[in-house]
Amino acid sequence: MSPRARLLLIVIGLIVLAAVINLMRTRRLKEEYALLWLLAALTLVATPILINPLDSIAFFLGIEYPPALFLGLGIIGLLLIIFQLSLVISKFSDQIRVLTQEVAILRSRLERMEQARSTIADSRADADASTPDDSNQHVSS
């Protein structure tokens, strides 16, 4: 790999690393999700620096085309990120189901309370209408 290509990959890795750290700093990316992204950024920085040892490892593993090893590791990294996000989605869907049930229970309780309140108000209004008013008795006598 040419020095220019190595420098370009290092710069891209540093940009990704800075972006992830900035997102964590501004609280737009939680630490639990940032771990794999930090690992990916560090890999982008380290790979061009360690290209010769990585090529040796690829040949040792029987991979005749070393970039195939990098591609495979990249795919595995993305699968780990997808797996982590799937776990988070599963957890959130369970929380949403529980919250939806709680909202339905609270809405039912509120409707019953409002219905009971209107029933009490109606019975008071009926009771007030059925009793004669003291001021009307003084006027008519």
What oligomeric state do these chains adopt?
A: single chain
Portion of residues within helices: over 70%
Query: Roughly how many Å apart are the termini?
Result: 114 Å
Largest sheet: none
Low-confidence regions: none
Order of helices and strands: HHHHH
Shape assignment: rod-shaped
Structural class: mainly alpha
Count of DSSP helices? 5
Please, what is the average pLDDT? 87
Per-chain topology:
Blueprint: H1 3-25, H2 31-49, H3 51-60, H4 66-130, H5 134-140
Helix pairs in contact: 1-2, 2-4
Give a written overview of the molecule:
Helix content is 88%, strand content 0%. The protein is mostly helical and 141 residues long. The protein starts with a helix and ends with a helix. The mean pLDDT is 87.
What keyword list fits this structure?
mainly alpha, 5 helices, single chain
Summarize the structure.
The protein is mostly helical and 141 residues long. It has five helices and no strands.
